[in-house]
Design a protein that fits this description.
Distance between the termini: 61 Å
Structural class: alpha+beta
Radius of gyration: 17 Å
Strand content: 15-25%
Strand order of the largest sheet: 2-1-5-3-4
Bound molecules: FE2/S2 (inorganic) cluster
Number of helices: 5
Shape: elongated
Order of helices and strands: EEHEEEHHHH
Largest sheet: 5 strands, mixed
């Protein structure tokens, strides 16, 4: 048994006091110790973006952090994005409506990445969206639906309602 430390942190608005192995990654802590399996693990070395979470409002790759480094920080995982159990966030709705996911493996990382991006860039261009998600790998969608979802979400978040699909003006 390795050395253990006590950590206190907030995840999705809930406070946790936990004892963790000092070598436990943050991703494994979230998934195995807290049961928040929405955070996915692909490459486990910082390349694919599937494990992206928000740490004090900024994106972080949870596979590259240790759980002890999250001590006294505030985290948001994909489970914390919806306002409640019955509604999706505008970004999640835009993903659903624009076919922004297929298998869904990359989706938690795409969503957390775009939460930060759209907070800082309320009215992005397509090119800016593509750059923003360039560190998140998707093997299914060809990215088209994801980019459309991000642009749609930007409009929804500005209170403009859903964006008309290309060629189908409302
Ligand atoms: S699992 Fe963390 S970046 Fe791929
Ligand atoms: S939807 Fe399958 S990897 Fe992106």
């Amino acid at each position: 048994m390795g050395e253990k430390r006590k950590i206190t942190l907030t995840v999705n608005g809930r406070r946790y006091d936990e004892e963790v192995e000092v070598r436990l990654t943050l991703a494994d802590f979230l998934r195995h110790q807290l049961g928040l399996t929405g955070t996915h693990l692909g490459c486990e070395h910082g390349v694919c973006g599937a494990c992206t979470i928000l740490l004090d409002g900024r994106t972080a790759r949870s596979c590259l952090m240790l759980a002890v480094q999250a001590h006294e920080h505030e985290l948001v995982t994909v489970e914390g994005l919806a306002p409640n159990d019955h509604e999706l966030s505008p970004l999640q709705e835009a993903f659903r409506d624009n076919h922004g996911l297929q298998c869904g493996f990359c989706t938690p990382g795409m969503l957390t990445t775009l939460v930060e991006f759209l907070r800082d860039n309320a009215d992005p261009t397509e090119q800016e969206v593509r750059i923003a998600i360039s560190g998140n790998l998707c093997r299914c969608t060809g990215y088209q639906g994801i980019v459309a979802a991000a642009l749609d979400a930007a409009q929804r978040l500005q209170g403009k309602g859903p964006r008309a699909p290309a060629g189908h003006p409302h």
